[in-house]
Amino acid sequence: MRSYGTMLLLIPGPVTTRPEVRAAAGIDIAPWDFDFRDIYAGVRTRLLKIANGGGAHTAIPLPGCGHFIVEAALRTFLPPGGRILVPVTGDYGARMIRLAHEAGRDPVPLAVPANQKAAPEAIAAALDRDPTLTHVGLIQSETGTGIVHDIHAIGDAVRARGRRTIVDAVSAFGALPLDMAAHPEIDAVVFTANKCLEGLPGIAYAIARIDRLEAGAGQAGSWSFDLADIYAQTTTRGDGRPRFTPPAQIVNALHTALEFLEQEGGPDARLARYMANRNALYDGLIGIGLTPYVGPENQGPIVVNVHAPPDPAWHLQKFVDALKQRGVTISNFYNTPTPGFRAGCIGAFGPSEMRGAVAAMDQALNDIGVKTRNGESK
Ligand SMILES: *Cc1c(COP(=O)(O)O)cnc(C)c1O
Questions:
Q1: Could you tell me if the CB of 65 is within 6 A of ligand 1?
Q2: Ligand 1 proximity of 72 Cβ (cutoff 6 Å)
Q3: Does ligand 1 lie within 6 Å of residue 168's CB atom?
Q4: 218, burial (CB in 10 Å: exposed 0-12, middle 13-18, buried 19+)
């Protein structure tokens, strides 16, 4: 597969997209028009299928970014003061804690070693110690480190204790496995259009249990972020009628992106491509003398973090600028506890583009005068 833009976006969202996806956003659409309603409703149905949601589930759209939908889920499924255990898997685990706290819920952090997967046993033990915890908040793909956590194995332990989960799948949905029908402990899985779905930023979704949406009615404390209210409106006004003005062009682009996902062979095929991208990146980085942050046994297929080279010439922004001159854009920040850089493996491109990007990184390091590359920067 070739990359389509002139610039390869190698960030873990918003990702490199196909020109057809961008073109679908380039037209004027009236969100209340009946032609658009089929698209609006059709996207919801397709997303439900990706989540393996059955009749017990529904897809709820919310305009905005990933933080908005995480906050909306916390508000909708936890009452004010409700207690949620949040394994601190990295920066995004920490963000869920802040979102819950500022929404007036009571998040309880559980420490997880930064370069390890969250252990179901540790979560089970924390739940056993504290019967007032009704929920566990999980990050499926922790974008801060690149580690994928096993929401299904953890979910089994949570369900066995009669508790529930809220899953941030923002950098996972559309590629990583998800089986909501087999996991009734999941109140909601939340995500955006612009990561593994390869759509544009501006719309977020929750796939949620209908019984839990009904049980959560009236407790959000925010009209804007009340998923139960959005659900209630779909039942009274029809599946295709938005509540407030939606980013209709972005939904139209997502509709196109979902057709490409289907053509590719669905989430399993997309995951296989991302794993090939990850392997090209991970092995390539080691090949040019750099040290990935996460060991191969824990490295997920979404984002790879790299230790900063222990060379005085290393300077993240200079590296990012030099790389951009060579047609590749990476993040100009990192979320790991120690300095480094990160590159995404997701988006509309394949391993040959990734090998090209690694060659550009090698040259960009030379451009800024980095000689010593191996080992962890202190
Ligand atoms: C990207 C991301 C978010 C939030 O994204 P925004 O759209 O920037 O608000 C939340 N959680 C995870 C795991 C992410 O990767």
A1: yes
A2: no
A3: yes
A4: exposed
Report, in this order, helix, strand and coil percent for the chain, each rounded to 5.
Answer: 40, 15, 45
Q: For the chain, which domains are there?
A: 4-13+266-367 (3.90.1150.10), 20-263 (3.40.640.10)
Residue 17 in tokens: 């997209």
Residue having the nearest C-alpha atom to atom 2 of ligand 1: 170
Strands (E) across the chain are located at 8-9, 57-64, 83-88, 106-111, 135-139, 141-142, 147-148, 164-168, 186-192, 202-209, 303-307, 328-329, 340-344
Mean residue pLDDT of the chain comes to 95
- Report the nearest-CA residue for atom 10 of ligand 1: 66
DSSP single-letter state for residue 247: -
**Residue range 59-110, pLDDT digits in tens:** 999 999 999 999 999 999 999 999 999 999 999 999 999 999 999 999 999 9
Convert the pLDDT of each residue in 367-377 to its tens digit. Answer: 999 999 986 54
Q: Which of 299, 279, 335 is nearest to 148 (CA)?
A: 299
Q: Which residues pair with 61 in a beta bridge?
A: 205
Q: How far is the CA of 171 from the centre of ligand 1 (A)?
A: 7
Neighbours of 165 (CB within 10 A): 23
User: Do the beta carbons of residue 145 and residue 114 sit within 8 Å?
Assistant: yes
**End-to-end Cα separation, the chain, in angstroms:** 38
Distance CA 82, CA 75 (A): 9
pLDDT of residue 237: 86
Whether the model pTM is above 0.85:
yes
Q: Are 166 and 135 in contact (CB under 8 A)?
A: yes
User: Would you say the CB of residue 155 lies under 6 angstroms from ligand 1?
Assistant: no
Other beta carbons within 10 Å of 8: 22
CA of 368 to the centre of ligand 1 (A): 31
Q: Which protein residue has the closest C-alpha to ligand 1 atom 6?
A: 66
Tokens of 274: 């991302």
